[in-house]
Amino acid sequence: MGVSNKWEPVVTNAAVNLRLAEINDLDALERIELSCFDSDRLSRRRMRYWIKAEHGILLVAETESEVLGYGLVILRRGSRSARLYSLAVLAKARGQNIAPALLIKLEEMVLSAEKLFIRLEVAEDNLAAIRMYKKLGYRKFGIYRQYYATGVDALRFQKPVLHPNMANAMKHYPWYKQTTAFTCGPSALMMAMKHVRGGTPLDQTTEIDIWRQATTVFMTSGHGGCHPLGLALAGHQRGFAVEVYSTQINDLFLDGVRSEHKKSIMRIVEKDFIERATNAQIPIYQREIELSEIETALNKGYGVICLISTYQFHGIKAPHWVVITHADDRCLYLHDPDGSEGFYDESGNRLDRSSHANIDEREDADLDYQHLPILKQDFGSLSVFGKTKLRTCLLVKPNE
């Protein structure tokens, strides 16, 4: 990408104007593309398409006499995320902070379109662009190997555009990254318990111990995930008062399991959970929790964990436990324990969490899984799983 080699505070030349691209800008946009990129260029036909497209924002920076640069953001259909597709500034105009100004204006427009994130790819050897993105609050969360025609890898960056407005208003909430692919439930419960009572340990021993107590034994593949009643029992055993809200109590997660033998084992485990939760007098409400009840619980300092489907995040339908940390007028905010999503090895395969030592600046990725903003109108479709439309949520309270 063509950007300034030195990032500075965003103070553009007063003579530079930012506006949406028009059809008569095509010649200028084509000149910029040819000047700034040796490969992976946008064609004139694609430029024309994005000028007209309703799901794209093509912004140009111009003086009275010339268009000097542009930025293109694609608004993903069916998602609250946007993608910075291209950003380019003519060499003669660099050093005037045009690239950062374009990006900041695009962020404002993305937020106005009710998108919550911007993601982008940048060549790993484009150090000037990487510095600029980091200065503007973007964090690396993954890598695409040999992404560009030149064979260069692309680093993946992300920024929650709503998050900076809330950063100062939100109090600290403990965050823990799950260490296996199947312990999102224990990790979410640990964060909630730590929030309610500070002495709760956040370590792998506790994580695995809770999983052993709460697992359904089997799932669609691999190790079993955690049943809401199993997690409630684990919290109860550790001295917390736990309430369970679930639209379904029996036969959870069975619709994705083909083996009748596995289903029979899961039913045995589930029956035991129900009996022990009943004996422990754990409140079980067989209904969906209301948003107002979640907000009331948060205001009282309770922990709130919820089962979601990961389809809207990753395009893969899987049950996943998260923590709801805060709420405001527009959004709920989530801590997602699966902080390694998006990292890939040399062959393009997703890295296992045991490979974290091989990931540079991995702490940057962790930031993108804390206080994840979700519009309230999206929470209903996010917090439902499976053919049975399961909705389940746990409130974790001090045991008074």
UniProtKB/TrEMBL annotation:
GO terms assigned for molecular function: acyltransferase activity, transferring groups other than amino-acyl groups
Record protein name field: GNAT family N-acetyltransferase
Entry keywords, A to Z: Transferase
Pfam families: Acetyltransf_1, DUF3335
Organism: Alteromonas hispanica
Highest taxon of source: Bacteria
PROSITE patterns: GNAT
Domain N-acetyltransferase: 16-162
